[in-house]
Amino acid sequence: MDTWMLDVLRIVSSVDVGHDEFSTQALVKKHKDVAEEIASYRPVIEALHEQAATLPPEKANSEEVQSRLAGIEERYKEVVELTRLRKQALQDALALYKMLSEASACEVWIDEKEQWLNSMDIPEKLEDLEVVQHRFESLEPEMNNQASRVAVVNQVARQLIHSGHPSEKEIKAQQDKLNTRWSQFRDLVDQKKDSLSSALGVQNYHLECNETKSWIKEKTKVIESTQELGNDLAGVMALQRKLTGMERDLAAIEDKLGDLGKEAERLASEHPEQSDAIKGRLAEITGVWDEMKDTMKNREESLGEASKLQQFLRELDDFQSWLSRTQTAIASEDMPNTLAEAEKLLTQHENIKNEIHNYEEDYQKMRDMGEMVTQGQTDAQYMFLRQRLQALDTGWNELHKMWENRQNLLSQSHAYQLFLRDTKQAEAFLNNQEYVLAHTEMPTTLEGAEAAIKKQEDFMTTLDANEEKISGVLDTGRRLVTDGNINAERIQEKVDSIDQRHKKNRAAASELLTRLKDNRDLQKFLQDCQELSLWINEKMLTAQDMSYDEARNLHSKWLKHQAFMAELQSNKEWLDKIDKDGQALMAEKPETEAMVKEKLASLTTMWQDLESTTQAKAKCLFDANKAELFTQSCADLDKWLAGLDGQLQSDDYGKDLTSVNILLKKQQILESQVEVRQKEVEELQGQSQALSQEGKGSDETDGQRISVEKKFQSLQAPLKKRRDILMASREIHQFNRDVEDEILWVEERMPLATSTDHGHNLQTVQLLIKKNQTLQKEIQGHQPRYDDIFERSQHVLREDSPTAELIRQRLAGLTALWEQIRKETEKRHTRLSEAHEAQQYYFDAAEAEAWMSEQELYMMLEEKAKDEQSSVAMLKKHQILEQAVEDYADTVHQLSSTSRGLVAAEHPDSERIGMRQSQVDKLYAGLKDLSEERRGKLDERLRLFQLNREVDDLEQWIAEREVVAGSHELGQDYEHVTMLQERFREFARDTGTIGQERVDTVNRQADELINGGHADAATVAEWKDGLNEAWADLLELIDTRTQILAASYELHKFYHDAKEILNRILDKHKKLPEELGRDQNTVETLQRMHTTFQHDIQALGTQVRQLQEDAVRLQSAYAGDKADDIQKREGEVLEAWKNLLEAAEGRRLKLSDTGDKFRFFSMVRDLMLWMEDVIRLIEAQEKPRDVSSVELLMNNHQGIKAEIDARNDSFTACIELGKALLARKHYASEEIKEKLLQLTDKRKDMIDKWEDRWEWLRLVLEVHQFSRDAGVAEAWLLGQDPYLSSREIGQSVDEVEKLIKRHEAFEKSAATWEERFAALERLTTMELLEVRRMQEEEEKKRQPPPSEAQPGDAAAQRREGEPVSQNGLPSDQESPRDNVDGGDVVNGVSEPSPAGSPGASRKGKVSQAATLPAKTQQDAPTSQLEGFLHRKHEWEGHNKKASSRSWHNVYCVINQQEMGFYKDQKSASQGIPYHSEIPVTLRDAVCEVALDYKKKKHVFKLKITDGNEYLFQAKDDEEMNVWISAISTAVPGDKVEVTPSSHSTPAPAARAQTLPASVATAAAAAASAAESSPGKREKDKEKRFSLFSKKK
Predict the structure, then answer these.
(1) C-alpha pair distances (Å), 1576 with each of 1193, 1365, 1569, 1571
(2) How far apart are alpha carbons 1137 and 1104 in whole angstroms?
(3) Which helix (H) or strand (E) holds 1510?
(4) Which of 866, 904, 1356, 1568 is deepest in the core (most CB within 10 A)?
């Protein structure tokens, strides 16, 4: 632990915090790991403490252990603290490096942008300025991003400085430096931006000047184009259309000129060096504007008589436009959603009504004028005008109907919105009420209960005050529903909801008030109970005081106790009252019964305890000194009665209400004392009786008692009489006080009621009316008190009182004052109402006079319009004022009706009111006259300005069109000339359509002016000639430019088409791929793509032909360089087209060859795979056990032959395809030739293997047939042997005859078996082959060895070393039937084995098939390693776990590049794989120790290329290394040619040697004959049929 702490201490105390951000982050990560490690050691330290605690006490408390533990704790705390400090230092350093990095990045960006800004000059052209402006726009988001980065740097810097970073000065310096750079950069950007904006402003100003100038010139031409419009209706209507559009345009132009003037002043001040140019441009525009106004003025002057008709048509258009707008406004379906909107819509609708009323006179004038104009006219234009007037009548009538419907709808909506407003207010009241009712709680004290009741009563008062408003809302809603409002359903829902909520709140408030009162009663009862219980407890302490043993104070004790008992008796009523209140409370409120009963029971118990304690104490005191106490008590009572008698004889009954109340209180005290003394008198009787019984009584004591009782009874009547007198005195004094108060109240308000101040203006009158209404309400509020006084006076006056007359006088005075103040208030109300009406009229009249005086001043102005725009503006403004004057007629009429009403009512100021009204009427009449007079002047001025506008506008328009038509621009390319042609075609069409109409109109107007004898007829004619001449020139220019553009279009179109076709051809050529495909599918895909490509380029062919035709036509039209250029472009296209066609055809042929090649390869591959499967099927080693299994194998082998024959057509087609490819010299001829050779060789090999297998099966069949026949024969012989060995010869003739017959039968049977035995003696094919082999060997032995090896003997020499014959038969000298080691015995006869065992192959004793090369047979290697291993299959694919991953013990065999798995050695020798698993190939496999597998030892793994992976476990490391070495040796693939492993396709082993030596020669001859004629073997399919029957 100490060592670890020292190491950690050394790490955390390091002062290295890194030199940059990256190194610091690495240190932070490392420190985090150290901190986690330190935190993980805390449990270790705690474990040390626990371990020390488990030690023996003497060791645990030893100084060494405690010091070691304390040292460890101290060092651990030191380490933790150093860790925290180092973490903070690293974080500070990291934050510092991050801040410096961000600051550096920001400065680099600022340097880059400053360099760009400093090198940038403000250009002069608008296009360059727009480019620079775009760059500035892209700079803005970058600046925003950098600003956020600077803000982050500042924030980090502030945090570091605030946390006291050691590099505070460096951080502050870097922060200030960055902020300074950023501020300087922003200032530079703002400076450049201002310069750019200023330059853009100048350029935009020049551009707007040009546009405005062109605009003005165009409008001048339009004005000039109206010269030909005449006085007829058609001309005037055309003129009207022109001038209507001109009015709007001229207003916009004038506004534009004003804006340009302001802009020019601003720019001239900002750019003094360009001031002359800026003001010069403005002067040019102003000059053009003045020219246009002069043109307009001249045009208006030239209109003449047509102005009237024009004015009518204009007014008709205006009226129809107004009518349409008004109908649209009225037909609006907008419904108000708020009260403000509803009032606004109603006001607007009322204004529409006023507007309709104002237009009614114009409508009548228009109808009259229309009838006059159209009367007797049959022209189509006049008929159209008549239809317009009829439509105008219909629209006017419909307008009134629409207004009424809309008015009804809006009124209902307004009422609905008013209802909603009141509903919201009522719902607010209800919501507040519901909230108060829901949040009121029952108080738990009497004071709280009384406060809650007062609050609830105030709430009920508020509820009553709001009920009138809610009732008003409900009445309004029901009235709206009754009237059929459009929102009746919603209104009814609101009404029902509010009504229900209001009733619910009213009931809830009453219920709550009742509960609060009940709660107050309960709290009062509880408080009374509490007070009584406290009093009882206090008295209980007194009653329990038993300190009266001394004789000297016994009497005083008795007196005090008597007073105490009297007090108890007087307070008994308190308990009775509480009990009565409790019973009443339980009767009224049963829910409080439990609590009340509990309290009453408790109080009753306490009171009984107190009484019993008091009685006991009294008895004790009395018993102590009964006689003395009795005498003293009588003396005390006698003394008290004497004092009471003196008080009752007093004549003081009070002089006023206060003294009477004081005397009444004293009287109540006396009565309470009398009641107490009454009980003492009663107690005296009891004491007297007690003394008499004890013998202590005497006549003197009885006399004292009787005297006291008589005095006490005699004082009862005076006491009651004095009380009655005091009550009557108080009532009279109270009544007098109330009467005096009421008289004083009336006298205080009487001056206000009799005041003659009626106010001198409207505001004071309204204030006085409010004060008088307040006084009336106060009088009404005092009426109940007044009535109460008179009711009480009847009671007072019924009694015989000496003050009755004085009371009647006071009542009479009060009655007179009350009636007087009521009458005076009513009179004052009447006078104030009259004064209010008069002052209201004076106020309205003063406002009307002020408004009319203001309008009169405006009407009298002599200001004249300077141009048409200002004239139109002044006319419109005057129309608005005129409409306002008309609308003000209602106000004047209302004032007049008000004044007449006041005069008729004989108002005191009626004469003054009449004079004031006459002044208002005169002022209004004068205002209307001034309005009409000013309207005439403005109309004349406007017609003057409209005269010269059309001619100037048309001339300007033609001049602008001439500039366009006279352009020599023919276009730079095809797109340009197309754009020019389209624009010019549209230009020509617009010019012809609009221009001709305008020129005709101007000509007609000019002719009309000339024919009408206009004063400036010569000027008009000059304008007309100039205009027609300019128009003719314009049309000629348009025709010429149209032809030039058409020719240019054809030439550029040819160039464009040639370039586009050439580019398309080259693009197609480039898109022609070089890829020929990787397989048949990709080749087919490429062929389809190429077919599509060829279809695509067919469209190009059509375009090329069209281009040739265009070239021929253009060459005939052009000569020189143009013709050569055309011919050159055509040649380039044709050459490229030819190259594209050749390339496409070449690629088609290549793709076809490639497709054939892959088809041929596919056929070869399929056939090769099929042949390999067939060969594998032929070589499958299956051992036949009997004749039937051999016949089955032969049938299967014949099926293979049939399948081979069926594949002949496929072989023929494949070979023919390969030969065809070779014949046409395919580019892959060598590869195709190689594939053909492989196919034919493989086919020959397959046929040879089939024939060898067939011969072998025939030999095996013969062997099994021989074995079967031999077995049958042997069984027959064994069966006959007992008969032949029998010695029985018969004992009689009959027996002998029977034996003879039996023997004859045996002989016959033996004769038949002789043929069978002869057949068994014939040599089989195998025996014949063996005989032939032996003969050949004998011949070789007899021949001398040749001196030179002949080529033909090489095979013979090679065969001498071969242990196997051509058909796989063994060459053994031993007798086949004596040696059966090489095969299995079947029925006592050995048969040839079709395949050697794997064990024999591994020992080198297996011979290969005769079809393999001799070298391969000689060099066939044995198995490299075999043995048992534990195996686990981990992976069966690259990304797939094996389904079974358990360990199995298997017998592994490594042979060449394969590894097979078997159950044991026997299965390996028989070639039976483990679970039918195929051997795994070791080619490119990886074998290594399984270091990552920890569950078992001595494990190595084998990874196969197909993704399989196996784990093998050996016995020890030595065996594991042997296996790894063996597998690694078998892995490389560059070995000599190897044969398939014995366990996969085992070669045939030596055949069973069943032939006898005597028949070897015959067998050899037969074998030679079979070998010399292979074709014969194929055709010879005969079988040797057995003479014996087959066993089933």
Answers:
(1) 21, 19, 9, 9
(2) 8
(3) strand 1508-1513
(4) 1568
Closest CA to 1468 of 1427, 1512, 1411: 1427
| Ranges 483-497, 586-600, 1276-1290, most confident | 483-497
If you write DSSP's letter for every residue of 127-155 in order, what string do you get? HHHHHHHHHHHHHHHHHHHHHHHHHHHHH
What b-and-e string marks burial along 37-62, b requiring 16 or more CB atoms within 10 Å of the CB?
ebeebeeebeebeeebeeeeeeeeee
DSSP-derived 3-state class of residue 948: strand
Asked if 1074 and 1145 touch (Cβ cutoff 8 Å), the reply is: no
Q: Kindly report the backbone phi and psi dihedral angles of residue 416, in degrees, each rounded to the nearest multiple of 5, phi listed first.
A: -65, -40
Q: Rounded distance, CA 146 to CA 110, Å? A: 9
Which residue is associated with the tokens 């960055």? 178
DSSP conformation letters of 459-516: HHHHHHHHHHHHHHHHHHHHHHHHTT-TTHHHHHHHHHHHHHHHHHHHHHHHHHHHHH
What was the pLDDT predicted at 1527?
A: 87
Going by their DSSP bridges, the two strands 1440-1441 and 1385-1386 should be labelled as: unpaired
Residue 1384 near residue 1183 (C-beta atoms within 8 A): yes
Q: What does the alpha-carbon distance between residue 798 and residue 874 come to, in Å, rounded to a whole number?
A: 91
What's the length of the chain? Answer: 1592
Quote helix, strand, coil % in the chain, to nearest 5. 80, 5, 20
Give the tens place of pLDDT for each residue, 1424-1470: 788 999 999 888 887 778 877 888 899 999 887 888 999 888 888 88
Cβ within 8 Å of residue 1329, ≥6 positions away: 1365, 1367, 1369, 1563, 1564, 1566, 1567, 1570
Residue 1382 near residue 1342 (C-beta atoms within 8 A): no
Q: Which residue type occupies 524?
A: K
What is the CA 178 to chain-centroid distance, rounded? 41
Residue 217 tokens, joined: 């010139």
CA distance 848 to 1239: 125
Per the CB < 8 A criterion, the answer to whether 254 and 869 are in contact is yes
Q: Do the beta carbons of residue 1512 and residue 1427 sit within 8 Å? A: no
Question: Please, are residues 52 and 65 in contact by the beta-carbon 8 Å criterion?
Answer: yes
Residue closest to 1580 by CA, chosen among 1590, 1570, 1589, 1588: 1570
**Angle (nearest 5°) at CA 95 between 93 and 100:** 95
Inter-residue contact 353 to 327 (CB < 8 Å): no
Alpha-carbon dihedral sign for residues 82, 83, 84, 88: positive
- Strand-pair category, 1440-1441 with 1447-1455: unpaired
Predicted confidence (pLDDT) per residue in 1347-1359, tens digit: 443 444 433 343 3
Q: DSSP string covering 1225-1284, please?
A: T-TTHHHHHHHHHHHHHHHHHHHHHHHHHHHHHHHHHHHHHHHHHHHHHHHHHHHHHHHH
What end-to-end distance do the CA atoms of the chain give, in Å? 92
Helix (H) or strand (E) holding 1381: none
Instruction: Give the global pTM.
Output: 0.30
Alpha carbons 1502 and 1496: distance in angstroms, whole number: 16
Coil vs helix vs strand at 363:
helix
pLDDT (average), residues 504-512: 86
Q: Are 637 and 712 in contact (CB under 8 A)?
A: yes
| Token pair of 1183 as six digits | 């051992």
| Rounded distance between C-alpha atoms, residue 122 and residue 196, angstroms | 6
Residue 1432 φ then ψ, to 5°: -135, 125
**What is the average pLDDT value for the chain, to the nearest integer?**
76
Write the CA distances from 433 to 429, 438, 642, integer angstroms.
Answer: 6, 8, 65
